[in-house]
Amino acid sequence: MLTNKLLTATRRVRETPFTPRVEAAGVKGYSVYNHMLLPTVFDTPERDYEHLVSHVQVWDVSCQRQIELIGPDATKLVQLMTPRDLRKTKLLQGKYAPLCDENGTILNDPIIIKLESDRWWISLADSDIKLWAKGLAFGQGLNTQVFEADVWPLAVQGPKAETLMSRVFGAQVQAIRFFHGKMLRFMDNDMLVMRSGWSKQGGFEIYLDDASLAEPLWDALFEHGKDLTVRAGCPNLIERLESGLLSYGGDMDDRHNPFEVGLDRYINLEADIDSISLPALRQLAGRHQRQLVAVMFDKTVEASDFLLRDKGEVVGNLTAAAWSPRFSQHLTYAMVNREWLDQHTEIEMDGVRGKILPIPGSY
Amino acid sequence: MLTNKLLTATRRVRETPFTPRVEAAGVKGYSVYNHMLLPTVFDTPERDYEHLVSHVQVWDVSCQRQIELIGPDATKLVQLMTPRDLRKTKLLQGKYAPLCDENGTILNDPIIIKLESDRWWISLADSDIKLWAKGLAFGQGLNTQVFEADVWPLAVQGPKAETLMSRVFGAQVQAIRFFHGKMLRFMDNDMLVMRSGWSKQGGFEIYLDDASLAEPLWDALFEHGKDLTVRAGCPNLIERLESGLLSYGGDMDDRHNPFEVGLDRYINLEADIDSISLPALRQLAGRHQRQLVAVMFDKTVEASDFLLRDKGEVVGNLTAAAWSPRFSQHLTYAMVNREWLDQHTEIEMDGVRGKILPIPGSY
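Predict the joint structure of the above. Result:
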């Protein structure tokens, strides 16, 4: 999983307000996400996983940047960008919503959060959606400001997350529903706290908008979490594969449409909304040629070229793979030829049997 | 310069067709640039520099992605994106051209290459300009395709670059003028070769458009360059600072306008062209409050917080720093308050004298 190469520090790859604490916690690896550092491992991926599913972790996910749309046309613009119907979104509610272009291909898969009637955050996966939003707004003459907000999300994830968050933010966190948020107080500052995060272990994301509070917030979580075995963590490959969370840039990118990766239920094909991608998506629905699936192998398959082969013939490509403790299987995701898929429920590679299944869980 | 952290390999951070050769050459560090691996060091930055200014190096700069605009409105679109007048651009000529938005701020500083009368490449610095171009095109209803081309530039840089390139591509490379290109043949394939590259040591960039030729091309350059001491290299901080080459995301980003970083000569304020940023830039010209300068210190200054202080008062921030063998000075770039700049030609930090100078050289 790790290369044996070092990541060169440059100003172009941004640190976060939490980086000093992440470093002090002994981070071992990073990736780069939205031009910003994303921690990737603290102990080993396997031990990070075991801890995540048992206790509570604090994750620096500042790289999940917020693109803010504000102004009279902000709601029009955000709806143009996604084929998911946003009309009934409540204040401080988040919706997982693929962004698609006029061809129906996926440009990002963010959480879209409604802050006020004419103010939204697009909480991003890894692509410069600010440029897409700015281009559309300028091109169509929309009255909307578009900018990257000075906000650095910190995720608190794991089965003990609610206990820890209650100690730091008060019992009111318990009333927050999944993908909803409240403005909660920390050191005399109100900040958005949502029940969300890129794991299925339960937890919250704190949308910190004052960098000077980053280290105090981190420290408060660790101070109150000692008996909960709190530690620093990060999005974990094993957990996200078991939980069915997709990675933009990994499992899908702007060569795919939402149907190919099973995001059908976030596309409101019949909605009477003005969304750039809906005309194309209505044509594409049910007609896609590829499908993202899970393939679970009885034991680890070496697929160094990341190709999926059926009797030597390439029928798809793997997008990610890890040994799954939950399933006791080598769990891979693969983008496969749909015609082949219709005729197969199993595959054998290198003498190892693999079951073809839908992507586990759902968002 | 290097962190002691590892870069985690994921599919989201793309390898290039040259990565196997880069790895075999012993690359020691990477950065991530346009979601792709960018090698950053092979020996030490100092020894990489000494070799680059003396011999010839082969650089995998595949991450300098090409955004292709093609169609009846491609020329209109590319001109909308830059305040540099592109009307007299010749076929296969490249122009360094800042891309600016309607506020005059910089979104990227690519080389724009004219391939055909209605076909252009934007050879990118590190931001997803495809999304900006697509947004503008869609918003304004322009008849242009916008996509990332399957092209992986390989740079051949250093004083012996022309000798090496002549051996591989023939003597006709010698007739190529700076920032101009020719279609040249390698293994029965024509590819664009330009006299360009992110160093001032002379050299070329080969715009490879067939991944299967990547390793043969790399090998041919090494085979023909043995007596020229050819080796693998990469953009080098020391050399680029001595040569006055700016880094988008480092020295400037979308909080700056071109005047602040001295790109005035690439802005055709008087041109009768339809460019999104020109109205704003005409207002901004001469009125900017900050200026990027070089500050040369007699010896190395420790500025771990990257702030420039005059008698304790912050007057700017450093954007990059390295010891310069050519100037025998600690060469830094700094964005400084212009009012302060008008009254100072020197600065003293931590007891070390610094001379304030324009950015060396010019593009």
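The longest helix of chain A spans residues 129-140.
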